[in-house]
Design a protein that fits this description.
With 170 residues, the protein is mainly alpha-helical. The protein is 46% helix and 8% strand. It has two domains: 58 residues, no CATH class; 62 residues, no CATH class. The strands form two sheets. A two-stranded antiparallel sheet has the order 1-2. A two-stranded antiparallel sheet has the order 3-4.
Length: 170
Amino acid sequence: MAEPNAWRRCNTCKAEIPFGGAYFACSVSTCNRRATDFAFCSLSCWDAHVPLFRHRDAWAEERRAPTREAFEEERRRAETEAVERKERARQARAGTPREPPRPGVATGAAAEREILVVASRLKAYVRARSGMNTSDAVLEVLSDRLRALCDQAIDRAGQAGRKTVLDRDF
């Protein structure tokens, strides 16, 4: 890959922003995400961007572009992370142990006792169909039945060689 002559190009006029040079960024969070990450060579270029994206309360933040060495180091790190991600995905497909679960996701015994239905929706359905109230104890019993149905569907998907549970597995 050829060595870049500049860190990036201005998102408005496409002028080069040099390594270590000053540039302007939009203060709005959606303009600073990885997918967008706008950079402008001057205040007038940033100013041209504002009405296009209909910002109500925005300002330009002056920042400094990374040096060539820092940029190359970041690029090497990103490439290494991409290779590691691919390797983890390959291992997951091969059935090797997976990463630990995300925080906030119930696993093990906690998942066995978690309520799986939305109480308000269930109660509204029962009331609309019959005019009856629904006891809170129903949620636990229904969740147990739902777990049993899901376990059967998981087994069927596994027997079919799939890693996705489909509607036909139920």
